[in-house]
Design goal:
Layout lengths: L2 H8 L1 E3 L5 H7 L6 E3 L8 E3 L5 E4 L4 H6 L1 H6 L1 H9 L3 H6 L2 H6 L23 H4 L20 H8 L3 E4 L5 E2 H5 L17 E5 L7 E8 L10 E10 L2 E10 L6 E2 L1 H7 L6 H8 L14 H18 L1
Parallel strand pairs: 1-2
Antiparallel strand pairs: 3-4, 4-7, 5-6, 5-7, 8-9, 9-10, 10-11
The structure holds flavin-adenine dinucleotide.
Length: about 300
């Protein structure tokens, strides 16, 4: 192995650096960096079938402001518009958003060990986990921080890297059981683009977040919802929640309950009751389940209106 490839295998990519710089400053990230901002793919390309391919270096602001994206993938556009602050969105890239590291205050503290820093346990589990998961899927109780990952899961997007093609968001982020990693990228593996399927005929979508302050904060809970409604009935429904588990979570029981049902208040109320199925809240996180149910209900009502 050459010296260059040894350095590359231990190095961390830097896109806009909005996540990485904070970890460098606090000493949680050290070691060599590879700047990718001027050498990767950026921009949005449209296929003849209406499907979009988005370069990993495309900024969140560019996605949020693109009228074609808003028409084809309104849930993704709204997610991008609701994320962080105008300043962060202006710099932050889609690839960096998907690969950003945990926001857990124990992980971000250079003086505290945790599973993601080769420690033997999750200090948040026995400590302060007010912003932690309500679906306890693995050893680490920090929710996945990526708003765009939840939206891209709702849109069945695929991720392309310099080594692999056709990764689903579940392939990229795992099932939440591995508390030691935020994603399944190998050292030196770089996200190059994200491919979305063409939108369904007549589909609608929306996004909402519950947040502890107006903006400049990760959401407590967020949901991206898509629905194709024909003849007054839900045909296809996708509901993906963030902030509640170590990975963005599809609310499959709700989706199944709505399939083929009349798009009315009774069906929505019934499905909403299933939103928290499978939840296992921590002592401090049961409040997230009320927020989740409220968001699901609001979103479904707005899609059915
Ligand atoms: C106040 C504030 C509020 C925020 N709120 C939200 C929010 O609500 N939702 C949300 O999702 N985010 C939120 N963020 C986080 C922000 O969206 C991320 O910091 C940003 O998206 C990271 O993108 P970047 O290009 O700056 O990545 P960088 O900081 O450059 O990189 C982040 C990580 O990803 C890796 N990486 C970068 N690009 C690639 C690539 N192409 N392939 C493989 N690995 C890569 C880097 O090695 C690094 O580990 C918030 C940030 C702030 C400061």
């Amino acid at each position: 192995m050459s010296i260059a490839s040894v350095i590359a295998s231990a190095a961390e990519f830097r896109a806009a650096g909005t996540d990485l710089s904070e970890r460098r400053r606090s000493g949680v990230s050290a070691g060599p960096l590879i700047d990718i901002l001027s050498s990767g793919e950026s921009g949005i390309a449209w296929g003849v079938d209406g499907a979009a391919t988005i370069g990993a270096l495309t900024t969140i602001a560019a996605i949020a402001a693109d009228a074609h994206v808003a028409a084809a993938y309104p849930g993704m556009a709204a997610s991008a518009q609701g994320l962080a602050t105008p300043q962060v969105r202006h710099l932050a890239t889609l690839g960096g958003n998907l690969a950003q590291r945990s926001r857990c205050w124990y992980f971000r503290n250079p003086h505290i060990d945790c599973l993601k820093k080769r420690g033997s346990e999750c200090p948040a589990r026995s400590g302060n986990h007010l912003y932690g998961v309500a679906f306890d899927l693995g050893d680490c109780v920090a929710p996945h921080p990526s708003t765009m990952a939840a939206a891209l899961l709702a849109y069945d997007a695929h991720v392309v890297t310099n080594r692999r093609d056709g990764l689903t968001i579940v392939d990229l982020l795992g099932d939440g059981s591995n508390g030691r990693a935020d994603h399944a990228l190998a050292p030196g593996e770089m996200i190059t683009k994200i491919v979305l399927p063409a939108p369904l005929a007549g589909e609608r979508a929306a996004y909402k977040r519950a947040i502890s302050r107006t903006y400049a904060e990760w959401p407590l809970v967020e949901v991206c919802a898509r629905a194709a409604i024909a003849d007054g009935k839900f045909q296809v429904v996708r509901l993906v929640a963030g902030g509640i588990a170590a990975v963005p979570l599809r609310l499959s029981a709700c989706e199944r309950a709505l399939h083929g049902k009349a798009a009315n208040e009774a069906a929505i109320a019934e499905a909403t009751r299933l939103a928290a199925i499978g939840a296992k809240p921590l002592p401090m996180t049961a409040y997230k389940l009320d927020l989740l149910e409220g968001l699901v209900r609001d979103l479904l009502e707005s899609l059915a209106a």
